[in-house]
Amino acid sequence: MHHKPPTNTHCRLLATLAGAALLLCLGGGARATVVPDVRNTNHNLSVTGTASIKAATETQVCVFCHTPHAATTGIVAPLWNRNLSSATYTTYTSSSIEANAAELAAGPGGSSKLCLSCHDGTLAIGNVNVLNGQSSASINMSGAGPGGVIPEGSGAYTGFTRKLGIDLRNDHPISFTYDDTLATADGELRPITGNPAVATRLAGVSPKPQFPLENGQMQCPTCHDPHIRETDAGKGNLKFLRGNRFQQSAPLGGAYDTANDIICLSCHDKAGQAWAYSAHANPLVADETYLADAAAQREFPAGASVWQAACQNCHDTHTVPNSRRLLREGTDSAASPKIGGNPAIEETCYQCHSDAGASVLSPTNNKAPDIKTDFTTLSVTMPITNTAQGVTTEAHDIGTGAGTQRGKDFVESQAVLGQGNLGNRHAECTDCHNPHRVSKTRIFNDNAASPAAAGTHTHTDTAGYTHTNIASGVLRGTFGVEPVYPSNSFYSMPSSFTVKRGDPGANASTLVTESYVTREYQVCLKCHSNYAFDDNNLPGASSNLPMLDSMGGGTASGTNGMTRFTNVAREYQAPASHQGLTGSPGDSGAFSGTPPGQAYTVNFQTNNRRGWHPVMGATGRGSANRVISLANPAYTVISVTNDINGGSSGSPFLPPWNNAIGTQTMYCTDCHGSDTAAGTAIPTGGEDGNPWGPHGSSNNFLLKGQWVALDTAGTGIGTGTNHSDHLCFKCHKYDAYANPAVGGRFATYYSGFSGAGTYGGGGHFENFNMHLEHANRLGTIRCSWCHVAVPHGWKNKKLLVNLNDVGPEAICQTIDIQDGVNCTLGQPMSPGTQVRLGGYPSPSPGTDPYYWNKVGHGYNNPPYYVNAANKIINFKDSGRWTANDCGSVGAPGNALAGMCPPTAAWGVSNEGCSALP
Asked: Buried b / exposed e across 218-247, counting CB within 10 Å, b at 16+?
């Protein structure tokens, strides 16, 4: 009578010790090229074996593990012929694993102990219980390590050895319960219910699960069958796996596909299609191939593609010691292969994301962005290394904090980010990117099944394109925060934050209110705000913000006078009521009333509102708000139709910023990133050239061009005239703002800094561009004279400095007191405080100890006032400025209004600006 083998199984006749026939079935689906043939595997330790370790004379194959008599007792094992190690193990753990901590800490158990009796290196390979009727026998072996134990391969402290040792922190966790409760807690594990591939193996029950649990626990034999081998050499070393070691066809993201999916997906579904269409799994993207040496070292088949290696590109279930979360080569060891070292996530990424000389991928078709070069060769970088962070173990730790499923979403607690302990501040690749979800799409919610030319946002100089701040594909599914503000004032920090996490799935919504990341700034602000550090909202030495040079690779303290980071979330707030260029919201933080210690009154709120670069929200300040006021038609030298949205000659903005002015938004990485050519924010080399992103730069503050606010007389280094390659002129046209050779106020470039009034001794002030007028008359102009030195966002429109209204963003200095400013030394200034500006020499340096602040400098009180000169009496809508709107409002200034120069009163005062550098 013939018995039909169980369906969906793979069965072969296998010779047993007794010579009888055994029907061995590999449950879960046919893999035609995998056969049970221990004789032709590395587990054939007899003299007939082909492995590097084998017996000198012993011909029996099975005796090294099994015996028909006198087997080891007390364990559930198939007639085991070896003793079990009595070693104490250090086991795998992490903050992102949801398995029972007590089970993990208890160490290996069950059938895993059988495997470790060889693979932990504590017992000699040739020591068996019984050999030819003799007990406690020792088989003479060749190729063994010292003491007859398993050899070290590439080295015991590398990831290319199977002498695992007793420190199993770098090995896949075992001996833990895998059930529906665990799957739910994790969020990216397949439930046992409804997953026939992974289940507890029960006697007499068929079909057997392909990946058998032992009493509900994950053990080594859940994934490995020590008797099988791959007959197709083109598929590489099977590693005795019960499932595919490599992805056989494009993943679909649904139920586990025994025939095609890599074994890891039998348990880890990785959010289904989020992984299947990610840049690391999609064959239409990850088609790069491994170099021959790298493939051989990893025992990958020759010519293996990234999508085929799948999980193994970044993970190794038995990886280099001290690597966390099973990251392949994830330590800072300088050896190759790595030998121990300290955890270093970036080293895993650098395997592929390096230049042609360091990448493991063939240069023939390598499109992986070279990130390592930015991090390792440029002078200013994110503190991504342990050395830069001043630690030996990375602070970065996903899965921390309160809540569930935080590991899958790469969420970190505020404490781990630095809140309460600035020593925890850090930057790692996975702070910004979730490698299981990144997609090669222009924006995160595009169809990842149809990849774009790049995974970064569109930034084109094509006419008509509207730039946005919608997160790109490389930020899909990562972790960020959205600040919540108690008021619209510049002085109000976020009172709370809404955590953004999770993959959007098929949800196409880009609303900022979604539960997942929809904006790039949400990723940046989780570190650059009071979400990740304490902020007492005090200036100067009283501040508790992170120090600028607290980590290696950063900008030196004192650059632009700055010594600390700023709270970027506070600066970038974009209140809806402050959009547009008309109206007076009155709650920006600008002062109205009687200044401290004075008798006169001022009003800096009328026609004023918060200003910001449109990172969090659009400005609402379009061409209609910026039309030039032609009060005197006699001075209409160019057509009013050539407004700020005009052609390349009329608009002061460079593409794409001359499109959709007022409704466009931007990225943080439009300014922050590696150096770019003059006049553009697009990385050098275009689409497949230098990467987008704030990885490294040759410029301070990780900027794409220089931003020099703190200038010294005679050096001419400040951003403005003669520096068309500096940061501001990546977006703002140099010829429209700072080139004195272009012409004065009648230049063909319009500017909102324009208006009508009297000029000098009664002449006309009608003009179209007072930026160029200043540059033309003074011979030079510096951005920081009139605009705040940290140009994220500000209490005044257009980011305008107003030295008539310095407030608690600045600290009272000795020079302020000696200049008659009403303030208390070392304390924040009161709103509406006027400070002095000197641009002409006082009688002599010898008689004026504050000569340095009056000659060759504007007013300096970092971070916001650096070489500042602007004093505003009345704020006006764009195109409606007059000469009398500028100047000092009264004491302690000179109370003179007017232009600078050449009015006689202004020109002889110490409030002038013509001597500024």
From this structure: bbbbbbbbebbbbeeeebbebebbbbbbbb
